[in-house]
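Run folding on both entries below.
>entry_1
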Amino acid sequence: MQRSDDRILTTHAGSLPRPPDLTRMMWDLLEQKPVDEVQLQARVKQAVAEVVARQCSAGVDIVSDGEMSKVGFSNYVMRRYSGFANRAQFVATDLGDFPDIVNKLFVENEGGQHLVLPNVEGPIELRDRDAVQRFNPQIMYLAIGTPFPGFKTKFGNKVNGILMYGGLDPGAPGLDEYYKAHRAMFNRESEAGAVSVYACLEVTQQAIETVGEIDRTKIRDAIANGTFQTIWGEIKYRNQLNADPWAVAQWQNGEVVGLYPASKRGARPVQFPKPAWT
């Protein structure tokens, strides 16, 4: 994970222009013309490498695949699901008063001709039902909910190898005692992300103990300038932000562990590839 303390890292969102030959393959797919799937996948892989190299050369900090494998944001759903067909009667409100521009963009332009905003005209079903069973990526990152105990309860050992935001050191002093107290009070396991919340309370407590009285200004200054030992590791603030927070975590052997920053106490090496789902 890239970070910077002195500038905003550059990135972008969305689709980047595809090579003409790949574009033609995508259009042929939309027109239901025969396309060599092996050749298509090889060209997609090559195009991703090319577009990533161009982004790096241009100075983009956080690159993407440019959506080289997608036929288009509105067309892609038609490849994956049945029930969509024909064209919806749609004109963007900012173009409605300019029919000549609409004609150039969506009638005369070949790319615009292949921009399909389909209607729902039947039951929506996954075209390739077996794709769900075949889905078994070597690396997987999920967001909200991933560190919750219910996630492990639902999926068991299949959680191992899944990456997420955050992290912790399972061997941090006081962490086991926190878990035991949490189970005793709530009769359930603690969510891994709650450890950082409890750590903030520890910071507040230690700052009050350092100041020796309930003086908000003094407590604020103690927090801003102090270094605190918590169940989430050492915490120090810079410009009102945690100077060195856990940023990447992973389920390993049934527990959430911190991976990055690798310099933090208790950081584990990443498990890659993710254990295969069976």
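>entry_2
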Amino acid sequence: MMLDPLTAFATAINAIQLAELGVQVLRKAHEVRTGVKGLTKEQAHLESLVHHLQTTLESLEGTTERKDKQALSDEAQCLQQASHDCASISKDFLTLLDSFKVRDTRDKWDVFKQAIRALWNEKDVREMERQLVRAREKLNLSLMVYLKQVSFSDRTVYC
């Protein structure tokens, strides 16, 4: 039985796509198996960056608190909100990355499943990364405005 040319072409393309997907899964599985903490190199790098951001946020904590119990300035409130948003997104991001970790990299089936999950959820990781970048940019801007406000208020006290 002979297939018409269009059906034969479509079948060949589907076979190529399936082979390409298989190669991607095998590459991810190898990267997970040889990677640190059961993550791909990229995921481990992202996890490290988010941990660093959380450490920075912890060091910022208390910066805007007033000892004299006066109301916070608009700049300080904006900085606190930006810090809270950044901390919330980073916590969610770490939860997502933690869901990709393979507990036992010797278990080939677990590694294979996690490789498929990593490929399947790549868009979620990218979106979470974009959200974190936007939150960090907002935090940087809020911090600069707050520092400008604090430096001007210090000048007026000493003048």
